[in-house]
Amino acid sequence: MFKYLKHFKQDFPASIVVFLVALPLCLGIAVASGASPFAGIISGVIGGIVIGFLSKSHLSVSGPAAGLVTIVYTAIHDLGYETFLLAVMLAGVIQLLLGLVRAGIIGHFFPSSVIKGMLAAIGLILIMKQVQHMFGYDGDPMGEFSFFQPDGFNTFTGMIRPFQEPVVMGAIIVGFFCLALMILWARPMIQNHKVLGRIPSAVLVVIVGAVINSIFAAVNPELVLGGSHLVNVPEFDGWTDFTDKIKTPNFASLGNSQVYVVAITLALVASLETLLSIEAVDKMDPHKRRTSQNAELRAQGIGNTLSGLIGGLPITAVIVRSTANLESGAQSKLSAVYHGILLLIAVLVFPYVINLIPMASLAAILIMVGYKLTRPSLYKEQFRLGWDRFVPFIVTITAILMTDLLKGVVVGLVVGIFFILRANYKVTLQSDQENEKDGKRDVHIKLSEHVSFLNKAKLQLRLDQIPNGSHVIIDGTHTKDIDYDAVEVIYNFSEVAEERQINLELRDIPEIESYYRK
Predict the structure, then answer these.
(1) How far, in whole angstroms, is CA 515 from its chain's centroid?
(2) Which residues pair with 441 in a beta bridge?
(3) What is the pLDDT of residues 179-235, one digit of tens each?
(4) Which of its termini does the chain have fewer beta carbons within 10 Å around, N or C?
């Protein structure tokens, strides 16, 4: 763990941004799930400190997940909260077992077009949901991501909801000023400045938002934001008051069969969402570091077991927090740990200060995170790769927007598999030779005549097993068709080969650019 401390200058500022993103989502997801805001904070702290410490991922951040809101809400209603906590604890045990039996291998089998479609859809949902908060409508919890909203509207019609309510001019001024400030702060003239470039834009806008609201109080009290328009962190008199509010599972319900049904459902859905997020984060990692899916399931299992024991919600790796972490320049997993510590400090030490932050300021931050996830260049990139990748990408986005995260991914996966089967690719390595000569390991991998997405996992695992310092030849001389996903794995490997002191030689492997439409 100490080896990560060398990245403190990058990790701590990033953790502040992640904290600001995670805080309203922890509170909002808890409320949307029918739990207390305190439960959201507990799971956020555990996701940051415990799972962040145990995880092998350098950039992912865990916390309560929007994708589980519907399941959690129904379970709490049917079982009661203490019995629900028992199900959460058992779900964690199941996840731990899944990691021990190495079930995480399924994470290798998600097509990149589906993963990128998931990211784009989450970005669109973030933007559309936060527009409501920008205009001062805070009737729906900020962490609520489902298509059908609690107020009876949906993701699309919900954007007109603020215009059916009295105008909240204070929120509009704060929200749009903060959004404009974030856009300005992303410009090269600011980022390259010796002083201004060191100030995280997310930190700046929450301070500016609170200051503007204070100015409203002195200049025009009618514009002052209060109540639901501000962050509402639970306030405690001290550590004792904090611990007194912790709830524990109802172990008397161990004989209730419904508890096990909920536990298995939570474990499977949470594990799938985690594996999807981990795969997505690894693809975005500029250093192309790979996370052990099985180690991640074990970390998540321990985290969820603890969360259930002390009154928290189910936890998964969360792409929104992880993206904010990556975009803020984090280099190691300590950023996730720091953000968990900040969440704990926020509720114990200075909740009064946190509760001065306007929701519109946080909405501006999340809109920028959403834009980075669904940037226009992503759509152009997928289109240029051809219809067999663009169609699953678009279908995944549409399905997620119209249903939820996991249903949408399943639909996209089915469509992706259809295109794979239509191409009738057979997956195998023609030969794989490894020998040692003069104290140096030589590896010669010959690709088969047809290499498809189905070879991605085997190829990735084989490359991960190559010893550092080897001489490696990846030979595509006899390959007629090689899928983009396999080529992406090879070139991701080439980017880290130098760090691993591997002498890599590629023979007749097509360039990534050759797959794009001209």
Answers:
(1) 28
(2) 436
(3) 999 999 999 999 898 888 888 999 999 999 999 999 999 999 999 999 889 998 888
(4) C
Q: What is the reported pLDDT for 65?
A: 85
Closest CA to 128 of 412, 404, 401: 401
Whole-number pLDDT of residue 421: 67
Cβ neighbours for 33, distance < 8 A, ≥ 6 positions apart? 39, 64, 68, 69, 72, 73, 76, 313
As a residue count, the chain comes to 518
In 3-state terms, what secondary structure has residue 473? strand
Comparing C-alpha atoms, which of 242, 260, 246 is closest to residue 84? 260
Tokens 């992640």 found at: 18
DSSP state of 34: T
The span from the CA of 373 to the CA of 367, in Å, is 10
Q: Is 48 within 8 Å of 341 (Cβ atoms)?
A: yes
| Residues 6 or more apart in contact with residue 143 via CB below 8 angstroms | 24, 25, 26, 27, 28, 29, 30, 31, 32, 40, 64, 66, 69
CATH number for the region 429-515 comes to 3.30.750.24
Two structure tokens written together for 364 = 């501006």
Among the residues of 6-48, which ranges form H helices? 8-32, 37-46
Domain positions in the chain are: 7-354, 375-423, 429-515
Q: Look at residues 445, 443, 413, 415 and name the one whose alpha carbon lies nearest to residue 431.
A: 445
| Angular region, 150: left φ>0, alpha ψ -120 to 50, beta rest | alpha
Contact 59, 330 (CB under 8 A): yes
SS3 string of 41-89? Answer: HHHHHHHHHHHHHHCCCCCCEEEECHHHHHHHHHHHHHHCHHHHHHHHH
For 101, half-sphere exposure in the C-beta direction (CA atoms, 13 angstrom radius) is 7
Choose among 321, 329, 297: nearest CA to 54. Answer: 297
* 154 vs 156: CA distance, rounded Å: 6
How many whole angstroms separate alpha carbon 445 and alpha carbon 460? 12
Beta bridge partner(s), residue 506:
474
d(CA 153, CA 145): 12
**Given its phi and psi angles, is residue 7 left (phi above 0), alpha (psi -120 to 50 degrees) or beta?**
alpha
Of the candidates 134, 126, 129, 121, which has an alpha carbon nearest to the alpha carbon of residue 151?
A: 129
Contact between residue 76 and residue 34 where contact means Cβ atoms under 8 Å apart = yes
